[in-house]
Amino acid sequence: MKSSATKLTDSDDLMTPKAAPVRRSRRRASDRLSLISMVGFPAFLHIGLVWIPALLSVILSFTRWNGIGGVDNIEFVGIDNYKSITTINTEFVPALTNNVLWLVVLMAVSTPLGLLLAVLLDKNLKGGRFYQSALYMPVMLSLAVVGFIWELIYSRETGVINAALGSDVDWLGNQSINIWAILVAAIWRHTGYVMILYLAGLKGVDKSLKEAAAIDGASSWQAFRDVVFPVMKPVNIVILVITTIESLRAFDIVDVINGGRFGLELISVLITRNVGGAASRVGYGSALAVILMVVSLVPIISFLSTNLRKEQAS
Predict the structure, then answer these.
(1) Residue-wise pLDDT tens digits, 269-293
(2) For 36, 103, 164, 190, which has the most beta carbons within 10 A of its beta carbon?
(3) What is the pTM of this model?
(4) How many domains does the chain have?
């Protein structure tokens, strides 16, 4: 009996290490499948839909092509497209000026206004949830929808503003005021985004810092200026990057309202007009797209390098 029991025990011991590798191999296979589905597939889409078109745009920016026919119709012209942007095209400088104005206005108006709303909502006001939802609602709308809404508001014949004021102002056709009219719509949407980011930053501030400032006799404004706001430096950097990108990629709202006409050009509008419009100057439009991409990468790279330095320091 002992010998048979010993044999059974030995056989069980021999079988145990053989089953473990099977389970481990199955686990490794499932891990590989999960890794491919969660990382590999999104990375494949990102490369196929972002980086490859960006690389092709860089290549096409050195060519002349009307978008018709195959690659045999593509003519290499070197840097002629980049030269013509600043020397021949008279729309580029106004478009660049409008993009810079877009950035300055969003930073000067939407950022402090969003910060003010976040500070007020952080005080747990009565009905704060309702106000927060109402102020954030424009962010949930696409820029195209925002453009449709404000086109109805600014319409010369049936617009809300002209009806309320009893005026006949051409808000979207007058080159001296149309950029400011559309910037009001952009501010309306972007302020809610800034508010949510600052509100999240305020919720993350250690309450003991505020209490220590109050014990030291600091007023609410002094505590915010000297203690709370410096702690939210990462949030400020994120808002700066997002606002810069938002001002550079602005297209939908302008295109929907008046198609970028009447002196309301933006770089993104020029790109679309040359690549997909009647002109079909794919090479020239690609050169504009490359310039816009390079300018957009500046704040992104600065943001990433700052975060990497912080991680290495910590």
Answers:
(1) 888 888 865 557 888 888 988 988 8
(2) 190
(3) 0.77
(4) 1
